[in-house]
Amino acid sequence: MKMNLLTSERQIMYIAGYRGSGSARLCSMLEHCLDMECIDLDANGGHTSGPGKIYKTVATDTGGINSPLIYMVRDGRDVIVSSYIGRDPFRGTVKNEDGAGRHGPIVRTVARLMSRLSFSLFMRKRAADWVRHVKTWTGRQPDVIVRFEDMCSVPEETLKSLLLRIDISVSPEVIEEAVKQDRELVGHAPVINGGKAVSWRDYFTVRDSLYFREKTGDLLKMFGYDI
């Protein structure tokens, strides 16, 4: 049986994360665990009335946010790739965007180079924005910082640890149900991010990797990501 164990003063919580960080998945699992409604604060245009809400936000200028605050972090390279793919969910990897073999070698080469250029420009625009987002939200001293990769590899342990950090007790059975539901949703719901932790390697050239490392290396190391 699920129970909303937040006290009357804490029947609202917040989840922040850069677009493509996987915060929608975390929000969905907490929604199941706590029997609370998850609301996109940015799309909704503000808070709604009544308790029992989990507010999810991407914006860094969101006001009126109190504790508990959860920040979702993910390897910035995967975040960039996820955001890039999100513009067109049918986009293939850069390595594979060279046609289906029906075009001549020159056409395929040009298409591949244009695809690489498109991603490289996108990545350079987003790298600084990702750094700003992470620094802004972590500067607000969130109650818990959750790594997307941990949520994928050890979801039960990650959820249990998160809930304990904000003084909420949920039965192991309910947590298992939430994880099972998440696995069923991945790949079927467009808002659910099922990206793999190594997907950035299919997009980043050596030059892209060096650029991103130069701009974000300190943050990557801070959160335990290989550079």
Detailed description of the structure:
This protein has one domain (8-222): Rossmann fold (3-Layer(aba) Sandwich). Helices cover 48% and strands 11% of the residues. The chain is built from 8 helices and 5 strands; from the N terminus they run E-H-E-H-E-E-H-H-E-H-H-H-H. A 5-stranded parallel sheet has the order 2-3-1-4-5, with helices on both faces. Strand 2, helix 2 (41-44) and strand 3 (53-57) form a beta-alpha-beta unit.
Contiguous helical run count: 8
Report on the biggest sheet.
Answer: 5 strands, parallel
CATH topology heading: Rossmann fold
CATH-level-2 architecture: 3-Layer(aba) Sandwich
Contiguous runs where pLDDT drops below 50 for at least 5 residues: 1-9, 96-100, 107-114
Overall geometric form: globular
**Structure summary, number of beta strands:** 5
Class, according to the CATH hierarchy? Alpha Beta
Elements, N to C (H/E): EHEHEEHHEHHHH
Radius of gyration: 19 Å
N/C terminus separation: 44 Å
Structural class: alpha/beta
CATH superfamily: P-loop containing nucleotide triphosphate hydrolases
